[in-house]
Amino acid sequence: MNRRGRLIPAWSLRARITLLSTALAAGVSVVLLYLAWSLVGDSVAAVPQMPPGSKVRVDGVDVDASVLAAHLREHAREKVLIAGAVAFCCVVAATAVLSWTLTSRVLRPLREMTGTARRLSIESMGERIGGRGARGARDELGELGATLDAMLDRLQTAFDTQRRFVANASHELRTPLAVIRTELDVTLADDHADEAELRRMAGVVRDATERAEQLVSSLLLLARTDGAGVGPTEPVDLAAVVGSAWNAVYREAERRQLRTDFQLVPSYSIGDPALLERIAGNLLENAVRHNVDGGWIEAVTQPGQRWTTLRVRSSGGLVDPATVAELFEPFRREGVARTARTGAGLGLSIVRAAVQAHGGAVSAEPVVGGGLSVTVHLPALNRVGVPT
């Protein structure tokens, strides 16, 4: 183990590659040496033999021809073996040195990538690996660096989004809690507070508690749907879903004297009925709460071959077309400040997460003269109830 208590691998990648290449070179050298030794012996043995009993004079000494042939064969093999052993050692040593050196150069970008990855943290996510390690190479290491950089880009985006989300959620939750504490402190500090004052304080505390409860519920729903799939699904008629969701907000719409125009044609999709009703409910709630007194609301459902469409349009304040996409981010509201007391700014975020979980798409565009139009496309069903 090193000083930081991390386990050090017994063999590094560089050492394993060097050992493997050296062993391969040694094995090939042994095979070649054996073949050379055998070929030399066979070549000497293939020399035409003299008749048995023949004598050959060598350095003034008569030697039997068969003994001389055997001696020459063994001598030749011995020479080959000695020369081959020297060559074997040289080849193995050269292979080891070259492998160690070349492997170091080849793995240098990988070591730089590793060093960069070790330095990365949430606070230093701006640094990238590809530029340091791959050096623009169009090989496997370059592709690896580009892939890791793309992954880091996604992680940085996710971290930034999460950081903003947590900060906004903390701010939103702090507001009703601050209201509750202020009302309690002011009332408790008043020794002459009567029943009316206590009832007023209780009403304010109740409203703040309801707002905090709605925010927590919205956060839980967003966490359940964002980036996740849906559970058990069944065919759902969006027209019936819109009608059910409208029952929850129609009293507020009547109180604000909003005109309605609903063109609800039976339009079937497949999904989680509760989530689909939440989609319609959030769109209608936004259309009512961010409307103007005496304004209008339109809701349309339309079947199709591939997509079932739900469109909710409403009057309201002017919306900058450049900021429409931001309305789907958490804690963004149509034409009102983020600290407004109505709504949590999560309606369209939940709509987008639920629609994406069903494999659909959602878009929005400003209405001329003020207001917003939101269109949801969900996978349609064919006549036999199968998604198209």
Largest sheet: 5 strands, mixed
* Residue share in β-strands: 5-15%
Q: Residue share in helices?
A: 55-70%
Number of helices: 9
Distance between the termini: 58 Å
Radius of gyration over alpha carbons? 41 Å
In terms of per-residue confidence, which ranges show pLDDT below 50 for 5 or more consecutive residues?
A: 1-9, 334-344
- On the 0 to 100 scale, the average pLDDT is 76
Q: How many strand units?
A: 9
Topology, pairings included?
Layout lengths: L12 H33 L9 E4 L2 E4 H55 L10 H4 L6 H50 L5 H31 L8 E4 H9 L3 H6 L3 E6 L3 E4 L1 H17 L6 E7 L4 E8 L32 H11 L3 E6 L5 E8 L9
Parallel strand pairs: 4-6
Antiparallel strand pairs: 1-2, 3-5, 6-7, 7-9, 8-9
Helix pairs in contact: 1-2, 4-5, 5-9, 6-8, 8-9
Structural key phrases:
388 residues; alpha+beta; two-stranded antiparallel sheet; 9 helices; 9 strands; disordered N terminus
